[in-house]
Automatic annotation (TrEMBL):
Organism superkingdom: Eukaryota
Task of the protein: Ubiquitous transcription factor required for a diverse set of processes. It is a component of the CCR4 complex involved in the control of gene expression.
Protein name: poly(A)-specific ribonuclease
GO cellular component, one term: cytoplasm
Cofactor requirements of the protein: a divalent metal cation
Family: Belongs to the CAF1 family.
Lineage start: Eukaryota, Viridiplantae, Streptophyta, Embryophyta, Tracheophyta
Amino acid sequence: MSLIEKCLRTHKWIAMDTEFPGSLRETSQNATDQERYNDMRFSVGKTKVIQLGLTLFDVNGSIGGTWEINFADFRETEDARNEKSIGFLKRNGLDLKKIREEGIGIRDFFLDLNLILKQTRNITWVTFHGSYDIAYLLKGLTGESLPVTSDRFSKSVARILGSVYDLKVMADRCNGLSSRLGLQSLANEVGLNRVGTAHHAGSDSELTARVFAKIFDNVGDSEGYIYGLGHRIISDRLKQEAMMMHQMHMNHVMMMSRCYGPPPPPFPLRMPRFVPGHPPFGGLVLVPRV
């Protein structure tokens, strides 16, 4: 934890990834935002995170360090889980027995992490398809159940985490890329090689950081948009930016009014025109021939 605290002094961008026991509810493609959120909230509330990957980097993309934290709380034979997801993690090399025996406690870790984050300002978080990652992080930092609605969830994330990006959203806005690409395929498209093993939280977070640094300059405004989450996460930075834009607009309006003054009132007509009894066209009266 002391290494993370020291690294955060100079590297205030954090790419993160989690490995968890999977979703306990299947969400239909036509589900509303609130229905998708309800399913995620149910799964995150019933399950325990297995791994957390954190990669700290700076605004230039220079990586300060990567940490993979294994949590001992998950018991494979007792805790809620999606069997297909557990099988997938095992096939990709996660030793759940070793993690259980040698891992650390979720509560103690997040208590320490929370203290560090409160002492560090202007942190920016980066995820890939990160709704579940952010949800487990929020659950760990608050020690509470997730908010009831998607809107409240977004506001809680903005208050506690601040600025958040999702690579999957960014890929959809970058020429030549797509949100249909997985993290590894996205890395291949931009010419980056992986360090470590896929679907391990540390390796995934490290690759997320490098892909983000690679495409960030080619993507428009995408902060706060999380793939699968309907409400934008409005950080203090976005609020300040919006206030500045509003102030600039008001200043422009005031400057224009000083230069040109208010628009003149409509010129009043001395006499009404084109009404019964008033001849148009210079006062000539057209009399029909009999």
